[in-house]
Amino acid sequence: MNHFLKSVIDWMMDKEEAMAKQCAVPMKEIEYQITKVQEQKTKVQTQYDDAMGELDDVLKRLEKIKNAEILRCENKEK
Fold first, then answer.
1. What is the DSSP code string of 4-50?
2. 25 neighbors 19 (Cβ within 8 angstroms)
3. Which residues are CB-contacts of 35 (< 8 A; sequence separation ≥ 6)?
4. Cα–Cα distance between 59 and 29 in angstroms, integer?
């Protein structure tokens, strides 16, 4: 699915670039699109940062559980 979407976006950008070369795209439209893409990029970056933070927390908890189990098992063997 990602490959399909990338292909469609590439095709659209090629068409828009061709139109811009013919001065058929208003500058305000291009500026608007740039602003929207920048906003979306910021949103995606924030979601990524949040997800990575949550995964880091899960990893820390798992390491803590692992270490507790190692200590418990070592004490049982003695």
1. HHHHHHHHHHHHHHHHHHTT-S-HHHHHHHHHHHHHHHHHHHHHHHH
2. yes
3. none
4. 45
pTM of the model: 0.68
The DSSP secondary-structure symbol of 78 reads -
Q: What is the pLDDT of residues 14-65, one digit of tens each?
A: 999 999 889 898 999 999 999 999 999 999 999 999 999 999 999 999 999 9
Joined together, the tokens standing for residue 78 give 């003695």
Cα(20)–Cα(38) distance, integer angstroms: 20
Say if residue 75's pLDDT is above 90.
Answer: no
**In angstroms, what is the C-alpha Rg of the chain?**
25
Which tokens hold the place of 20?
């811009």
